[in-house]
Structure formats: C-alpha cells, structure tokens
Amino acid sequence: MNVYTPLSRFCLVFWIFLGAVAPAHATGDPVVLRIYGPAADRAGQTADSAGKAKTAGPLLAGFDMGFLKSLPQRTFVSKTPWYKDSVSFTGPLLRDVLAAAKAKGALIHAVALDEYQAKIPFSDAQDYDVILAHQINGETLTPKNKGPLFVVYPYDSKPELQTVRFYERSIWQLKALRIE
Fold first, then answer.
1. Is there a contact between 110 and 124 (Cβ–Cβ < 8 Å)?
2. Residue 17 phi/psi, 5° resolution?
3. CATH number listed for the domain at residues 23-179
4. I want to staple 178 with a disulfide (CB 3.0 to 4.6 A). Which of 11, 43, 109, 139 is the partner?
5. DSSP element (H, E) containing 20
C-alpha cells in the first residue's frame, strides 16, 4: 500500500530540496556573512562591458557567528599597517568557510558593510592561510573595531604577503562574498 499521495510526495521533495539549498546557519542568530554564487547574464558572463561585477548571484549560504565559530579556528600574531604593534587574529580559514558554502570560482568579491569591495583571487584561499577574523587580541570584533569579520592574511609568514597587493585584499567589516 502506498502511503504517499502526490501532494505529500511533492511536499517531501520540496522540503528536501529546500534543505539542500537553504542558507546554512547554525543557531538562528543573525546572519553575519552571506556567500553568493556567480550571477550569469544572458551570455553567461558575470561582468558588464566595463568589467565591473554585476549584482550577486544566487545565495549559496548565510552564516551566523555561531556557525563560523564552530568551524576549526586559527590564531596567529602578525604586524599590520593598521596597528602599531603586532596583533593576534582569530577566526576560521577562508577556505573552510568557502567549502562549507560549497563555493567554487576564480574570483571573490569581498563586500563590506559600507559597500566597499575588494577583489580576492579564489586561489588565495588555498595558497595562504587567510582567515575571517572575528577576534583581535581576544576581543570580539564589532562594526566599531573592524568587525564583525576582517579578512586577514598571515602577513608575517611570507615576505610576499607584506605588500600593498595583499593589504588591499584585507577588507574589514565584511558582510558578503560574491563568487565569480
């Protein structure tokens, strides 16, 4: 005997599908980071004729701070151009956050609360231990002190990271990642 009516089958499939594509956030707290996939236009392009990124594509994930803190955490101490002394940064690796969202691409457009944007090659997440810092010197970041998230490279680990090119990719008050 079949206990599933066509409507119940539809509802079951719908809820399974919704669960597979719904933004992931662990505790129901406010989402602090949204990750968007590529936005393709009619020709399959993700940039306009001037080379500027188009609006965000489909939402891949929305993570709250609880979820980001549930990922393996990295802490490192580094000198930066923004602080007089060496600073301790703590947060999940960017590559782990991207993997949790099942994000793939060639370029990341990091977007701040004030809509400032930085372009980060997707390969940086694999090549360097870039973190999304949520703490500096053990203190939780807020929008008043570069939070809620700050893209930070381990600058002291390699001389090549101590350049303007990488400092420009270190965006604070991060709210979204758009993947191309």
1. no
2. -60, -45
3. 3.90.420.10
4. 109
5. helix 6-21
Q: CA-to-CA distance for 140 and 107, rounded, in angstroms?
A: 28
What pTM was estimated for this model as a whole? 0.79
Residue ranges per domain, the chain?
Answer: 23-179
Q: How many residues would you count in the chain?
A: 180
Decide if 65 contacts 82 (C-beta within 8 A). no
Assess contact for 151 and 174: CB atoms under 8 A: yes
Distance CA 99, CA 103 (A): 6
The percent helix, strand, coil of the chain (3-state, each to 5) is 25, 30, 45
Rounded to whole angstroms, the Cα distance separating 68 from 27 reads 11
pLDDT tens digits, one per residue of 30-46: 999 999 999 765 344 44
Largest CA distance in the chain: 73
- 129-174 per-position pLDDT tens digit: 999 999 999 999 999 999 999 999 999 999 999 999 999 999 999 9
